[in-house]
Design brief:
Blueprint: E1 2-9, H1 22-29, E2 38-42, H2 60-77, E3 82-88, H3 93-105, E4 109-113, H4 134-138, E5 160-165, H5 170-179, E6 182-185, H6 186-192, H7 194-206, E7 212-217, H8 239-251, E8 256-262, H9 273-289
Parallel strand pairs: 1-2, 1-3, 3-8, 4-5, 4-7, 5-6, 7-8
Length: about 300
């Protein structure tokens, strides 16, 4: 299946600078490997970005403007026999990429691979970083201000799986409980094993759905191994485990309708360690997409 890459060059959803530069760097790295269509969107350089942690609506207008353009670009350029990959950018850009996939594929599930649950609301956020509200917005759990550009249905929490989270705010835990979104934490993975845990995530996300959107945040990896992320959380997975996740995703590639790789921050990387992991992940997914077939629902 033809692959198409979208770069979401924005770091407006977090008080840390640098993730806006990640897509261009990774897309340049891929030039010798990937010859397909690419579209790069960059945040307006004239924006004076708010970094005030007490501001609960930091850069809300600017994020909505960027995500509206990203959403429209993905919807317009993704044809039926096409596999879209979005490279971020902070995790707020996944609101646009995921809902664009919903617009194209309708009834889908999502696996949210991230150290952070990203299930805060404007009321519960501690930092005011909108990237920490993104999955809740995708699920339609409050945060409606972040999805005005999308007129269709949201992804239902029952078909959404937070995978590998190890940093969840206290109030955020209540949001997760009340929304009924599925969560497989880092501790669950350690107890049950990575492969069986991710297979469970696929089973949950595929239940009565027409495919899965994968959102892979590099912060799931331990920052000693992959330091180039916005908000690192220690005690993450190893590089081998990160590639094992990719291996399992590729095993299910016919069930995956779209893919995000998020939060590569080259300003925080060391010796290009995170960059190389990101390129390896993307190269494997791109190669796997060549043999991808259109998803036909299987009974689980």
């Amino acid at each position: 299946m033809k692959c198409i890459i979208f770069g979401a060059g924005s770091d407006l959803g977090v008080h840390i600078d640098g993730a806006s530069l990640g897509p261009l760097q990774l897309m340049n790295d891929l030039k010798g490997f990937f010859k397909g269509e690419t579209y790069l969107l960059k945040q307006d350089e004239a924006i004076i970005k708010s970094k005030n942690l007490s501001d609960r609506r930091k850069n809300e207008y600017e994020i909505d403007k960027f995500n509206t353009k990203l959403y429209t670009t993905i919807v317009e350029h993704t044809k039926e026999e096409c596999f879209p990959i979005t490279i971020g950018g902070d995790h707020s850009t996944s609101v646009a990429s995921t809902l664009a996939s919903v617009e194209k594929n309708k009834n889908i599930g999502i696996i949210w691979i991230s150290a952070h649950a990203d299930y805060n609301t404007f009321k519960t956020t501690v930092s005011g970083n909108i990237n920490g509200m993104s999955l809740a917005a995708i699920n339609g759990y409050k945060n409606n201000e972040l999805t005005y550009f999308h007129k269709g249905a949201n992804i239902q929490p029952v078909r959404s799986v937070i995978f590998g989270s190890r940093s969840i705010d206290e109030a955020e835990q209540d949001n997760i409980k009340y929304s009924n979104v599925n969560i497989i934490t880092d501790n669950d993975i350690k107890e049950k094993g990575l492969e069986s845990s991710l297979e469970e995530a696929f089973k949950l996300a595929l239940e009565k759905s027409d495919g899965i959107h994968i959102c892979y945040n590099l912060d799931i990896i331990d920052p000693d191994i992959a330091p180039g992320v916005d908000i690192p959380v220690f005690d993450g997975i190893s590089e081998e485990e990160a590639m094992k996740i990719n291996e399992i995703i590729i095993k299910h590639i016919d069930e995956v309708v779209s893919f995000d790789l998020m939060e590569f921050n080259p300003l925080r990387d060391q010796n290009r360690k995170t960059e190389q992991i990101a390129i390896n992940i993307l190269a494997q997914i791109i190669k796997a997409s060549d043999t991808k077939q259109k998803f036909v629902r299987k009974k689980y």
